[in-house]
Amino acid sequence: MNLKNLHCIDLDMPVMEGFRKFVSCWLYHSAELTFVVDPGPLSTMSHLLAELRRHQVSTLDYVLLTHIHIDHAGGTGALLKEFPTAQVICHPQGISHLVDPKKLWLGTQKVLGELAEVYGEILPVPEANIGFSERLTGSGIKVFQTPGHAQHHCCYLLDELLFGGEIAGVHAAVDTGIYMRPATPPRFILEVAVDSLQRMIELQPRYLVIAHYGLVEPAVEYLQIGLKQLNLWVKGIAEQLANNQELNETEIFNWLQQHDENYRQQFQLADDIRSRERYFLGNTIRGMSEYVENLSPEERQKLFQR
């Protein structure tokens, strides 16, 4: 694996505040192997195709999907029209939803509202082109099922490089320190997410691609930050629920500023990106609060011992 063959293709959406350096597709292009990871939504497909042409990509061996959320996989069907021999690799639970995406599209519209229309419709993927395997023949790529951010989440390991999707949440570049936050929409189960992160840490990759956003190293440090944040944030939300009848997002935000040294770095972000990050905070809070609310009193008490 040669990092010179790896390219980040930004899929910015100027119509949405802060949607820059956020959604991206990753291209690996060598004489022996060419693949993309997360081709993004339909609305940015023309830009992606232009970039693939600029990199002189004439065929794709694989399209690797970390998960089937619309901002990662919505444009897959359109990409296959241009590269009909490409094989799509997807978590087994996501395959049927992409072959017949009507239910996925309706659910996405319900959850995202206007944002779903900005991303664009989800086009079907031919059944013959999509499947799952733990090892991709002739590529050296190993595939790991890593539910947590979503039940249909996968990570891909190529030598020392781990394509981690959203397993460790969201990252944005800052001048000092490391900014990260969990990305845990409903349905979130802490133990499942922790197990996925721990298994990826055990692989000891050197490099990590975080879908939102960037190539970082040492990979294990960022994975460990993601693990630490999961436990810390769930504990904080459990405390809020114990002290209040209803969650207050502003109070949780203030609590996180005090207790999470990485999330605290959000003050370094540009105004539009900070606004975007504050918007998505609500998704994480909802996922974690639903998890905590479904725990027994004894299970909640154990959270404070983490």
Our count of helices gives 11
Determine Rg (CA atoms, Å).
19 Å
Look at the structure and give the CATH class of the largest domain.
Alpha Beta
Number of domains: 2
- Major beta sheet, specifics? 6 strands, mixed
Q: Kindly report the name of the CATH homologous superfamily of the largest domain.
A: Ribonuclease Z/Hydroxyacylglutathione hydrolase-like
The shape is globular
Strand content: 15-25%
Helix content range: 40-55%
CATH architecture of the largest domain: 4-Layer Sandwich
Helix/sheet category: alpha/beta
Number of β-strand runs: 14
Instruction: Tell me the strand order in the biggest sheet.
Output: 1-2-3-4-5-6
Report how far the terminal alpha carbons are from each other.
38 Å
Q: Mean pLDDT across all residues, rounded? A: 95
The residue ranges in which pLDDT falls below 50 over 5 or more consecutive positions are none
CATH topology of the largest domain: Metallo-beta-lactamase, Chain A
- Helix and strand element order: EEEHEHHEHHHEEEEEEEHEEHHHH
